[in-house]
Amino acid sequence: MIKVISLFKRKSALSLEAFTKHWISTHAELVRQVPGIRRYVQSQTIPSAYRKGEPVYDGMAELWYDDTAAMRRAADAPVSHEAFEDNRNFLDLNSFVSIHTEEVIQLDGPTNPSMVKLAEFPIRPTTLTPEEFHRYWSEVHGPLAAKIPQMRRYIQSHARLSSYRDGRIPPFDGVAEVWFDSTDAMRESAKALEYKLVREDEPNFIDQSKLQFIITRERIII
User: Fold this and answer.
1) Which helix (H) or strand (E) is 50 found in, with range?
2) What is the model's pTM?
3) Greatest CA separation found in the chain?
4) Domain at 36, CATH number
């Protein structure tokens, strides 16, 4: 299964309230009608993240398809074009980035809409090939991070190797998604020994100067 992850900021003229209203109503209804989408999740940056300024993104959209053929058929549907055009009504298209990914489940726990979800966007150092990055992230770092006791679910979404063909470079090499019971639980996790070991391991495969993140809550549309 393929998961397409898109990240974006709202139009500068829009309040957060107006952005949210349009995204969860008008836009969600258009995307809901696109044939071939197996799952659609909106993850919106939580309000407290704005206390010290604007976060890097206001939201993240995730769309699941059976395969590339299903994804292409969906993109050709008239309602898909309508949904794409609707982006102009509420998104800053200059901020819009998208990657095609495949999931690796590191910790398979239950979630609910009250939880917070930390989304991090790692970029590999130039010293690592894409294959080396993805192997290390899934086989070494992932199992290490999954031991943090406050984590409830941990998914790695790896940029597909086709994203690197012909010298292309995706905006991120993947997205790490971690669910916690609350922001307090997330803060508490930073005190754990396991967390310390995870942070110490990051320079082995991540360019830390480029690491960005948002803290969100999910809305499951499909």
Assistant:
1) none
2) 0.95
3) 52
4) 3.30.70.100
